[in-house]
Amino acid sequence: MTHLIQVEQLYRYYGEHCAVNNVSFTLEKGEILGFLGPNGAGKSSTMQMICGNLAPTSGLILINGVDILDHPKEAKRELGYLPEVPPVYRDLTVDEFLEYCGKLHSLVGVKLKAAVAQAKERCGLIDVGGRLIGNLSKGYQQRVGIAQAILHNPAVIILDEPTVGLDPIQIREIRGLIRELGQDHGIILSTHILPEVQESCTRVQIIHQGQLVMNDSIDGLTQRMRASSLIMETRGAPDLERLRFVDGVQRIDDLGGGRYRIYHDKDKNPAERVTEIVVGQGAGLISISPERLSMEEIFIDITQHAVLTEPHPEESDL
Ligand SMILES: Nc1ncnc2c1ncn2[C@@H]1O[C@H](COP(=O)(O)OP(=O)(O)OP(=O)(O)O)[C@@H](O)[C@H]1O
């Protein structure tokens, strides 16, 4: 099966510094891959190499089966790219700009008109075709940026921080648009915004110091967020000694003010039995709920505890 993107053993050095270190991954149709990483992790370098704007030191990049180094023109036909700052001309109208972009993709005549009309429709731009881009809100300018990226109907769309600087309503609209586009294309979404990944993506990949340190589905990520502890709140004082013997319970911490943290085995949630006992004791159970790690906590945990490997020794001389 041909992957929409296949990256294998990708390296990029800037002098002695290895910015992208042995990165391999694939992207399939219908996937929205969140590409996360702290500043300087190597996201932009990886994106630029995939888009054919930066030469790798070594490695393989296939876009829909086409090698971007051997056949850049063909491979770029399959790619749509929205950089962090949308590449829009403020002095042109939306129609003029999209027609100009279409011509850059060698679209002419009826095909050009149809492509512009379709991109405008998909991005909700039908009513603003005659307006100057410079007069549009930032959210609409972002839509124009996405429209230029999908104009030639590429298999893969790469979006770099697409919601930065937008207000909450615009953010919701752009995320909705991304999810919609994800049904027919493969999308890579580079972002610092962790909730964006949960809301818009089907898979998440974390890059840290040039290396991929996590590659998981959103379901897998949700599992990681499920910590193995419960928070219990009671009006009275429960008999903690008794609770410590419940199957699966590892430890109970008294947090004060009638709140307790109950640590348990990952595969044995003792909530039901603990509830029965506390209610039986008449200790005034107010609530008991699983504790969840935030995505920030997972991100910090993964990037702090990542086991990194030395870069390719023979490449470091380049
Ligand atoms: N042209 C360059 N010359 C030298 N070093 C560079 C160059 N471009 C990037 N770097 C370095 O390579 C590393 C990765 O940078 P890159 O821009 O790919 O990271 P990033 O994850 O996109 O970061 P950010 O989110 O801050 O844009 C950083 O240490 C950066 O300083």
Automatic annotation (TrEMBL):
Tell me which residues make up the ABC transporter domain: 5-234
Protein origin, superkingdom: Bacteria
Q: State one molecular function term (GO).
A: ATP hydrolysis activity
Pfam families reported for this sequence: ABC_tran (PF00005)
Instruction: Report whether Hydrolase shows up as a keyword of the record.
Output: no
Query: Cross-referenced PROSITE patterns, in alphabetical order?
Result: ABC_TRANSPORTER_2
Q: Which SMART domains match?
A: AAA (SM00382)
The reply to whether Disulfide bond figures as a keyword in the UniProt entry is: no
- Sequence similarity: Belongs to the ABC transporter superfamily.
Q: What is this protein called?
A: ABC-2 type transport system ATP-binding protein
Organism field: Methylomagnum ishizawai
